[in-house]
Design brief:
Bound molecules: coenzyme A
Oligomer: single chain
Order of helices and strands: EEEEHHEEEHEHEHEHE
Strand content: 25-35%
Radius of gyration: 18 Å
Number of helices: 6
Shape: globular
Distance between the termini: 16 Å
Length: about 250
Amino acid sequence: MDGFFDKQVRFLYPDHRYADTTITIRLVDLAPLMKPRFCVLFHPTPWTSRVFLIGGSVDFVQKKPSLDDLVILASEGFRQPITPELIGDVERHLADTDFCVCIFDGGTLVGCMLCKLPIPGVLYIAGTLILPQYQGAGIKSEVTRMVMRDHPELLWFAGRTQSPIVWSSVQGIASELLPHPRPHVATDKMHERRRELARALGMTSTIQQGFYGGALYGEKPINRDGRVQAWWDSICNFERGDAVLYIARL
Ligand SMILES: CC(C)(COP(=O)(O)OP(=O)(O)OC[C@H]1O[C@@H](n2cnc3c(N)ncnc32)[C@H](O)[C@@H]1OP(=O)(O)O)[C@@H](O)C(=O)NCCC(=O)NCCS
């Protein structure tokens, strides 16, 4: 059904009346009726970092964030101190976007997606930054779906990353994805688009060694699935600063 999707939520609070039960929550996208808004479920607790409670809602607003706000998100997301280099990097990214989606909790900016349209049919996600306490609640997935829905001319979405968490987050919503541990499942067209995108972005290869000149994160992002992490480490050398260009279809 359009505008609705269901999410399985397992309550892990030891003493909660729903403890250890799985329920289905219907998330309602009211975008056709008003500004985009949907429920997100989050509430990290001491028992587990991935417990969800019905915690409220966030707003998605298509606008550019201020440089100061984005620098704070970048510093938190990449676990890097705020330095002139970080500010310069964020400034360049912000200037080089076609549009942005800001995520607000009340009046507070809690995340942002920077979007670019470098070649026809492809949404290039130049960066997504979600404050740590809001991560894992499906925000990036939902913003991606929303942008793709609002731009029916876009068939693909893509991004460049060092993080296998980004890859997993994309995999969660993608019907087709490159790179993939089983690359033969992707169509030739997809391989072709990925190479075309790499060229448009000035990359010499879809996985470019040393692209960032060193680790992008102050702390290496680790995928909770050891097999995904091992595969990722085999294609992306974190310390060397390798960049992986992914491309996907919903
Ligand atoms: C990467 C990031 C943008 C993802 O945004 P998000 O809103 O947290 O992602 P989503 O909630 O939409 O994705 C959740 C999915 O990611 C995956 N995921 C999240 N954390 C994971 C982890 N530690 N290991 C494996 N998969 C993980 C899961 O598949 C999860 O889906 P599920 O809950 O149905 O299992 C966000 O975590 C972030 O800002 N990180 C720091 C900055 C960063 O790395 N930005 C990307 C720069 S290219």
